[in-house]
Amino acid sequence: MNIAVIGTGYVGLVTGVCLAEIGNQVTCIDIDHEKIAILKEGKSPIYEKGLTDLMQKNIEKENLHFTTDYNEGLADNQLIYIAVGTPQGEDGSADLTFIDKASESIAAALKQDAIIVTKSTVPVGTNEYIKEKIQSALSENITIQIASNPEFLRQGSAVYDTFNGDRIIIGSDDQSALDVLEEVNADFHLPIVKTDLRSAEMIKYASNAFLATKLSFINEMANLCERLGANIDNVSNGMGMDKRIGSSFLNAGIGYGGSCFPKDTRAVISVGKDVGYDMPLLENVIGVNERQKVILVDKVMERFQEIKGKKVAVLGLAFKPNTDDMREAPSIFVTESLLDKGAAVHAYDPVATENAKQILSDKITYAANVKEALDGADIALILTEWNEIREIPLSDYKKYMNHPVIFDGRNCFDLDERIGNDVEYHSIGRPVINR
Ligand SMILES: NC(=O)c1ccc[n+]([C@@H]2O[C@H](COP(=O)([O-])OP(=O)(O)OC[C@H]3O[C@@H](n4cnc5c(N)ncnc54)[C@H](O)[C@@H]3O)[C@@H](O)[C@H]2O)c1
Ligand SMILES: O=c1ccn([C@@H]2O[C@H](COP(=O)(O)OP(=O)(O)O[C@H]3O[C@H](CO)[C@@H](O)[C@H](O)[C@H]3O)[C@@H](O)[C@H]2O)c(=O)[nH]1
């Protein structure tokens, strides 16, 4: 099938590449000229495992094309995916500016009937709004249908998730649009759930809100474990064996970040407000997460009282491993707080340093490797559990630091096996090791 994908970010690019991989003719459209120029050279502007290889393969097979021109991009395409950003607006609601602009550009360029498929995460009712906006601007002989196909990929494993997700949700109030999308998605060989338009939009928000709730819940339990002498790893393990609870998403840490959970939880509260419905549970999920993001700094201050002039090594900046994304990364809040208290921060991340520089500028020192960050440091903070960081031997902390005091926000070390002598080790929801 001939498909256009609008927006070549984490979702649009992965969607376009994977739709090409299963045999479609895909044209990706973006207004960012620099991005499209990079993509045309077969390079990926984002760090996502397996993406570049798959992209180059499909460019060579002539299944995958890139353009900034909507007229070129929409020509002959009956299926048009929208995957532009829906960032958080100032009042917490989803900012639909990019959706508006993309809809206007579709309306101006579309010359044939088409199905518009929204991949972007949008408030319930937005698809109806998009349909009305585009249809009312088209000439009378062109008809569009609308469908919601929310995306559930995780950054860092986006290509894997596209081919191995738990389900594909397709929502439309138009049976023929549902049938076309079912056929297109059949080649992913995943369970397909067909539903109505509004429910599909709601499934996405409800899923992210639930996952965020699970994280704030386990983080709150971790904080309680610390005060009661229990170990959250053992607690999560025991809880997760109950199939009704499930073992995934129970890793306590320094809170959730990224481009989705923070903004989507706020957007759900905002759509609730629009219809006069308060959501105290989600309000508190967000509140618990805000507190959790700086919990390591609280632990540092409790241990040292004063950190002015101390060298603090920060290991990991990205909001999670295997991505270069810094959006809402807990490292931003931790670093800012350490700087406020007068610490000299030396940070290392295997991939996200360039993106981090755009946010943290020259306020911190960017180390080229783990050794540079740890060398002569008084305190080490582990913020992202990249394998490279998980696998740093404790002997390295001893070798490079003055006296190793580690604050691990991701519980990378097994308390029993790996903590040896001469290392003071603080983690989340587990006893402090100081021997
Ligand atoms: N990042 C994720 O892991 C993820 C997962 C699931 C769903 N989502 C949702 O998918 C959507 C996209 O997220 P993302 O992370 O890929 O965003 P992104 O910011 O990485 O990419 C958005 C892209 O859209 C382009 N764009 C903006 N306006 C445009 C226009 N008028 N025409 C063409 N291109 C335009 C931008 O230049 C950019 O390249 C959001 O609604 C997000 O909530 C994201
Ligand atoms: O047990 C866990 C799991 C995750 N996290 C944190 O939670 C955040 C989000 O992690 P993850 O869900 O793996 O990454 P995202 O790429 O943000 O993916 C989420 O957000 C996407 C955008 O909507 C959805 O598509 C995905 O299904 C959803 O998992 C990160 O800060 C993680 O460090 C934890 O602290 N503990």
Automatic annotation (TrEMBL):
InterPro entries: 6-PGluconate_DH-like_C_sf (IPR008927), NAD(P)-bd_dom_sf (IPR036291), UDP-Glc/GDP-Man (IPR017476), UDP-Glc/GDP-Man_DH_C (IPR014027), UDP-Glc/GDP-Man_DH_C_sf (IPR036220), UDP-Glc/GDP-Man_DH_dimer (IPR014026), UDP-Glc/GDP-Man_DH_N (IPR001732), UDPglc_DH_bac (IPR028357). SMART domains: UDPG_MGDP_dh_C (SM00984). It comes from the Bacteria. Pathway: Nucleotide-sugar biosynthesis; UDP-alpha-D-glucuronate biosynthesis; UDP-alpha-D-glucuronate from UDP-alpha-D-glucose: step 1/1. The keyword Nucleotide-binding does not apply. Its EC number is 1.1.1.22. Belongs to the UDP-glucose/GDP-mannose dehydrogenase family. This is UDP-glucose 6-dehydrogenase. It comes from Lentibacillus halodurans.
